[in-house]
Structure formats: C-alpha cells, structure tokens
Amino acid sequence: MVISKTIQLHADPTANQQQMCIIDITHQVEQQVTGTDINSGIVTLFVAGSTAGISTIEFESGLLSDFQGMWERNAPKNIPYDHNRRWGDGNGHSHVRASLLGASLVVPFNDKRLSLGTWQQIVLVDFDNRPRSRQIVLQIMGE
Amino acid sequence: MVISKTIQLHADPTANQQQMCIIDITHQVEQQVTGTDINSGIVTLFVAGSTAGISTIEFESGLLSDFQGMWERNAPKNIPYDHNRRWGDGNGHSHVRASLLGASLVVPFNDKRLSLGTWQQIVLVDFDNRPRSRQIVLQIMGE
Amino acid sequence: MVISKTIQLHADPTANQQQMCIIDITHQVEQQVTGTDINSGIVTLFVAGSTAGISTIEFESGLLSDFQGMWERNAPKNIPYDHNRRWGDGNGHSHVRASLLGASLVVPFNDKRLSLGTWQQIVLVDFDNRPRSRQIVLQIMGE
Questions:
Q1: Which letter does DSSP use for residue B92 in this model?
Q2: Helix, strand, coil percent values for chain A (each to nearest 5)
Q3: Is the Cβ pair C63, B83 closer than 8 Å?
Q4: 0.80 cut: is pTM over it?
Q5: What is the bridge-based pairing of β-strands C41-47 and C132-142?
Q6: What is the spatial distance between Cα C23 and Cα B18, in angstroms, rounded to a whole number?
Q7: Exposed/middle/buried for B89, CB within 10 Å: 0-12, 13-18, 19+?
Q8: Residue B16 pLDDT > 80, yes or no?
C-alpha cells in the first residue's frame, strides 16, 4: 500500500543570524503516519528544491547553533561562488550545502511508531537566503 | 510490486580539471519509472562501488564548480591518505568523499511523476581518479 | 510484504585514538535479508539515536583512518560547542557529525543479493564519546 502526503512549511532563514532555518517536523510526520491504515513500513521524506535538505538531530538550541557553525566553516557564505557570479542570487552556499546534506530521509515504523531515538528529531534544514514556502513529500508504504 | 532496473554509465573524472565527474541522470530515471506499471511509490537509487555517490543539485556549470570546490576544501586530493600509502592507487580522497555523500537516494513519485523541484536534478557524483563504468540500481516499488 | 529486524551492537568509540567507532555490519544485513521470504526489494537501515550514522565504505584500516581524519578536520572534537557548554557531556562534535552523515541508508536487493560493489561494505559509524549499545532497525520490503 502507498499513501502520499505533503507537509507545507514557511521557512525564513533570514530570521536568525546564521541565515539557516532548522524546523522540527517530527510531530507532523508522526501524525501523518498515524492517520493511515498502514501499521508497519517506511516513510520516505523528500524535499522538493535544491537549497534545502532533510536529516535528524537532537533539537536543542545549542546543537542547532553548532550545526550551523559546521556549515559556515565547511561551506562558508562569504567566499566566491561561480553560481553567484552567474545568477546574482547570492545563494551558492545554500545549493552546495543542500547537495551535501541530501534531499531524502527514510524512516521505518512499526505499529505506527517511528523508529526514532528519544533525542532524535526529524528536521527540514533550509539553507536558502530568503523566506520561502517549502513542500515535503511523505511517501508512506507498508502493510 | 517491485521492478528492478539499472542505468549503465561511463564516467571519466579525468576529463575536467577538478577530477570529479557529475552526471545528470534525471531523464533516465524518469524514463525508467514511466516505463513501468507502477503509478505511485518510490524509486531507490543505489550506486555500487565505494568511490561514487548520488545526490540532487541544480545542474548548472557554476554550481558544479562550486560543489567541486567544497569537496576540494573539505576532503582535499593532495593531502596524505593512509589508503594511498597502503594501496598506491591515489584515490583515498575519492573514498572519503563518497562515504560522506552517500550511495543511496530515494525519490517518491505519484502518477509516474518524480517529486523533484523545478531546478533539482538527480546526479551521479563520481569521485574516482580514473575513467570507469558505473552501474546504478533503480529499485522501483509501489502500486 | 514488510519484515522488521534489528541488529544490536556494542560500540566503544573510546577504544581507538580518534574516538570513533566504525563497525562493518554487511554480513549481518545479508543474513537478515537471506532469512526472509522476500526475494527482491529494499532494505532500509536506520540507526536510532543522534550521535551515530550509517553509510558505506571500503572497509580497510587505511580508509577508516582517513575517514576519521576528514571528520576531525571538518567537525573537530576540540573546538567550542554550545551543546557542551549547556549539557556538559562533551559530545557536541558527535551530534554535528551524525546529522551530516545521516541516520538512514537504503540498499536494493534482487534474488536475496544486496546490490553492493565488491569493495563496498555497510557500516555503522558511532561518533559518540562513550561506550554504548546501538540498535539498527532493518525494514525489509519487497516481494
């Protein structure tokens, strides 16, 4: 059985100093899975777009800041990007980060419970440099 | 229902200065999915081999160069690698990069259409230092 | 069909100098897949917890050391982490690394054989700074 759902989000990476937006979507994923007739299987999360990714993290503000710091060291915002030179939208770092993090995550569930650790949340990481709507596709499969 | 397909590619990372080969496989994935009797589900892409990975990116030459630059900063080619010291094949950086990027990607589809963003392409990233054949397995599952 | 299995591991990152623990789980995954009635499909591997990840690598000691070196350059242990300042458990780098590597991997199989390359092993990468039990969920789906 396949059930397709979407999560719509408004992400505003300009709202904090590091210009990154990390949104905890665990509860919404749980709700969507619980609302189906599928008891065991997998939920595939996929973010459409090339400047955001999906992963898991312990969602506490210290780590969110640490995670942002890692990105700023490894794919800094203020170095030259050929993408920016060509298109002028200033989000070359956003694309590079998103490609490295990855657009998909697959989470198993049994008896409608996701196999997450206690301190492990599912997050959308929006790397872009302007507010935008985001759509995450949840493909729920199983029996 | 499960349908298994493969994409065969010739990748030549020596053809450009950064010795990385990024190949847009979106169209081939779309064709394989469209050619099945499955309307909704997921396609799992997996590259066999330990010096290549799969991700998504906006496939334009500026970004491809920026992406290569990020890898050269974070897992440089010309630093000492224990792998090279032991095996002499000079591709220690290729292995490290591939393990970080990841060998698998899962993309949902509905009505045979992949859930990709407009500027989001699926790519094979070959990090190796010599030309070679690559095989990507597409496991198409759904109903 | 969906069959859910788990792999239980004891991981001790303190046993080596780099304080990282990379465990080859390929054989256990193969055994679990072979032991089911599913011939073709995918196995989703997911590690519960926010300080470990799953990937593939050529499992030889030179590369394991190179991989650890890459993490130490890109998410060093001995820089300030807000997580450590707040919680005092000293594993801020472990969380950051795990979120970047990713908690899930999906591997196709046909005729009960995983689509791995010859030199490509599946690994649990435990980034934490203390010995602990790890549980990996294997969701095996197919027909």
A1: H
A2: 30, 35, 35
A3: yes
A4: yes
A5: antiparallel
A6: 32
A7: middle
A8: no
Is B18's pLDDT higher than 80? no
**Token couple for C83:** 């997580």
| Cβ atoms B123, B24 nearer than 8 A | yes
Out of C62, C74, C117, the one facing B50 most closely (by C-beta) is C117
Q: Is the pLDDT of residue A80 over 80?
A: yes
Interface subset of A 80-119, CB within 8 angstroms of B: 81-87, 92, 95-96, 98-100, 102-104, 106
Mark yes or no for CB contact C108/B139 under 8 Å.
yes
In chain C, the domains with their CATH numbers are 2-142 (2.60.120.460)
C31's CB contacts (< 8 A; 6+ apart) are none
Lowest mean pLDDT among B19-23, B126-130, C9-13, C18-22: C18-22
DSSP readout, C4-27? EEEEEEEE-GGGSTT--EEEE-HH
Please, what sign has the CA dihedral across residues C102, C103, C108, C114?
Answer: positive
Whether the CB of A76 is below 8 Å from some CB of chain C: the reply is no
Q: Taking CB atoms and an 8 Å limit, are B56 and A48 in contact across chains?
A: no
A touches which chains (3+ CB pairs under 8 A)?
B, C
Q: What is the pLDDT of residue B15?
A: 79
Contacts of C117 in chain B (CB under 8 A): 48-50
> How high is the pLDDT of residue A18?
64
For residue A76, the chain B residue with the least C-alpha distance is B70
Residue of A4, A49, A100 with shortest CB distance to B70: A100
HSE toward the beta carbon, residue C77, CA cutoff 13 A? 13
Rounded distance, CA A47 to CA C92, Å?
Answer: 26
Residue B19 has pLDDT above 80, yes or no: no
Q: Which amino acid is it at C32?
A: Q
Minimum-distance CB partner of C63 among B1, B46, B92: B92
As a whole number of angstroms, the distance between CA B103 and CA B55 comes to 9
| pLDDT tens per residue across span B43-62 | 999 999 999 999 999 999 99
B55 interfaces chain C, CB cutoff of 8 Å: no
Mean pLDDT, consecutive 10-residue segments, chain C of 143 residues? Answer: 97 79 97 98 98 98 96 96 95 98 98 98 96 96 97
